[in-house]
Structure formats: structure tokens, C-alpha cells
Design a protein that fits this description.
By secondary structure, the protein is an alpha/beta fold. A 7-stranded mixed beta sheet has the order 3-2-1-4-5-7-6, sandwiched between helices.
Length: 196
């Protein structure tokens, strides 16, 4: 359960940088559990989380990891990096911009990735930058790897359509879930497989 301190930290950073956060509330436990379902439980895996924030997704992802797995989170906000390192010492946190994912993962010695999860506000990211990021994510995934991300229902429809097109350019399969109404604001997941 998200604590008051986590809510306060998230709200403070969201107010300071709404372009990075996209919402004023952390992802709900239900949505975190849904996105974590892409993580294989039957073998050691490498999981990368983009935009870890206060760590709302992290416990659900960790609960699915088999022994010997590696869980790496990328976060650009220095205050949130410090928060994650203090409150989730088991999480390997890389301080940096997800747009620099290739260099960050290479620097940390991360090879092929089995799953990438993200709550980044993709509809707020410039289209060209977003397409480059999706291409990088697709290129880092193992052949049977999967990428899942959250899209809030409050996003403008034309931006969601553009996001979907960009995902379909990078992945052969893009599945969009039913809304998770118990998230605030309500959200859907885009689950992407088979990098193009």
C-alpha cells in the first residue's frame, strides 16, 4: 500500500515537473499487479522499469521475480532516485533519462532484457523522441521479451492514437487492456511483444 510519505513525495515532484510525471497520483496497487503479470515467474529474468517514481510498481514486480533475477529501475528525478535508494534498497536504481536507455544499460552491464515496464507519460513525450525510445526498448528485449506501459484515460484521444501507432511501428503485437477503473486516474495497459 502506498504510504502518506510516498504520496507526499510523488505530489511534490509532480507539481514541480508535471511534464515528467503526467499525473498527480502514484500508480495503484491493482494497476501495478496487472503490469507485473508480464514478468515470467518460472526462470531468472532481467526486468527494467522506466520512470520508477516513488516505486509504486516495484513491489508487485519484485514479488514475481524468480531467484537469480535482476531488477533495474531508471529514474531521471534526483529526489526520486534518492527516495528509491532509501526506501527500496533491493532495487537497482540507475539515475538518468530513459531516452539514454542504451548507454545506461550498457554502463550497468545489462544484456538482453526479458521485460520492460513503464509508467512514463508517453503521450507527453515528443513523437520523434518517443519513437526513438520505443526502438531502443525493442532492441534491448530478448526475442520473447515483452514491454508493458500504462496509459491514463485522461490523455487526449489524438495523442493516444499517435502513441498506439508508434508502438505498432516498434512491435508486431500491441494488446491494449480494458480500463483499470481503480487507478486514479483510470488507466489501460499496452502490452507489446515481438519487436519489429
Amino acid at each position: 500500500m502506498t504510504t502518506f510519505a510516498e504520496h507526499r513525495t510523488f505530489l511534490r515532484r509532480a507539481a514541480a515537473r508535471p511534464d515528467l510525471m503526467g499525473t498527480f497520483t502514484p500508480t495503484s496497487r491493482r494497476t501495478a499487479a496487472e503490469i507485473a503479470r508480464i514478468v515470467p515467474r518460472d526462470r531468472p529474468t532481467t526486468v527494467v522499469e522506466l520512470g520508477a517514481g516513488t516505486g509504486a510498481l516495484s513491489p508487485s514486480v519484485r514479488a514475481r521475480l524468480a531467484a537469480g533475477s535482476r531488477y533495474v529501475a531508471v529514474e531521471v528525478d534526483a529526489e526520486l532516485v534518492a527516495h528509491l535508494r532509501r526506501t527500496l534498497p533491493w532495487l537497482e536504481v540507475l539515475a538518468g533519462d530513459a531516452a539514454d536507455l542504451e548507454a545506461l544499460l550498457d554502463g550497468a552491464g545489462v544484456g538482453p532484457v526479458d521485460a520492460v515496464v513503464s509508467s512514463l507519460p508517453w503521450t507527453l513525450v515528443a513523437a520523434e523522441r518517443r519513437r526513438r525510445m520505443f526502438a531502443t526498448i525493442a532492441g534491448r528485449l530478448a526475442p520473447v521479451g515483452v514491454f508493458a506501459t500504462i496509459n491514463h484515460l485522461t490523455a487526449p484521444p489524438h495523442r493516444v492514437r499517435a502513441l498506439r501507432r508508434d508502438l505498432e511501428t516498434a512491435f508486431d503485437e500491441v494488446f491494449t487492456t480494458s480500463p483499470v477503473w481503480r487507478n486514479m486516474p483510470p488507466a489501460r495497459l499496452h502490452v507489446c511483444r515481438r519487436p519489429c
